[in-house]
User: What shape does this take?
Amino acid sequence: MNTILNKAALPYCKGCGHDLIAKGTARALETMGLNPLDVIVVTDIGCHGIIDSCLNTHTIHGLHGRSIAFGAGVAIGIEERQSKIIVFIGDGGSTIGLQHILEAARLNLNMTVVVHNNMLYGMTGGQTSGLTPAGFRTSTSIDGNAYAGYDICALSHLAGAAWAGRIAGTGDISAFLGEAFAVSGFSIAEVIEICPGYGVKFNKGRKLSEIIEGTGKKPGIWKNSREQFKMVQGKKTTSLIDEQTAIVPDFKPGTESRLSIVISGSAGEGVQSAAGILANAAVRSGCHVTRKGSYPVTVGVGFSTAEMVISHEPIVFHGTGVPDAVIITSADGLAHNISTIGRMQKGKLFIDSSLEPPSTGAEIFVSDFRSMTPGYACLLALFKFLSVTNCISPEALLRTVKESELPGKISFERFSSILSGLPDS
Ligand SMILES: Cc1ncc(C[n+]2csc(CCOP(=O)(O)OP(=O)(O)O)c2C)c(N)n1
Ligand code: SF4
Assistant: This one.
């Protein structure tokens, strides 16, 4: 079928301006010779939006006030194609989605917005919208709206719309709509109408032309001479994964087939980098590894925690629940994990000697991880952890440390000497 509408009788109340707009739209598109499937109509919530099933075009039904955003997505997504994108929206939807209209105008997206301005929220009983004129009576401003409505054309024009036009919704408006549809870039066509269901009822005897006259917002067309939106082509980047060199498994895994580990200390003290080094060492030992970092939104203060699972088998669930081992290097880490540690009936707790070990069923190992350099407390603790669990070999970790860039510019030799001075306890 080559006609835009698939039925003559549209589902609006008798005399509704939405009917005039739908028929004017169809006539304009047919005059332009557009095939219905070259047209994408995005409709908003409201009476105007029930047109979808009457259209032979593509249709998308949006959320209230968000149809512009849907239309913008389509306009950006099919930038190179010749489809005509038309958004139908009410004055209510335009109020809710005003910022979306301004953004689409600012970017000069290649789409036309048809504002069905019946000066109130029609579908829900005739409430005042942001476009309701001063003095216009609605179900929520029964004595007349106290404020002037937004001038949607002026706002869009100022925001950069290539074309903004306002017309009274009487007679044949297809030429006006056709001009909007022919624009390359963003066009907004405001059609002022009166809703027989509520607008006429509340404003008996008032003529549309007089109401428009009273607003001081004259019908007209305002243009900006601009290029339509073009996606800025960013610098081509390679994937972070592509930049990684594969880790070759050059060590054997330990005898522990699966361990869940929590490493926790203070922000800025190397918790996450230590966890990264352990993860690499575990992968080069042929293990599967998961690692999750958590810290407060204020990343520079408070706790920093890494939760890890190291396993001989693929890891389906990466939660640590009540972990097998907890490594605590500072008071922040202890405070953050105190209840988890309290729930441990078994497993191992490695804790810095500056801290009071909490009550727990875990076996406790106390060491002076922080005394020489707090920034390496977690790495030192990992060696302690590997000396009492057979998760992976300490050699695998040591080799990985050697090949890593140590934070804080400490040399590997210096680190090794600290490590060898770590007393057993
Ligand atoms: C986010 C959201 N708020 C409120 C509603 C309820 N609602 C449905 S239709 C409507 C009125 C629509 O008025 P308008 O956009 O002016 O379109 P008209 O019905 O006049 O064509 C409202 C408020 C909704 N569906 N979604
Ligand atoms: S309630 Fe008003 S806006 Fe809705 S269809 Fe009827 S006349 Fe049109």
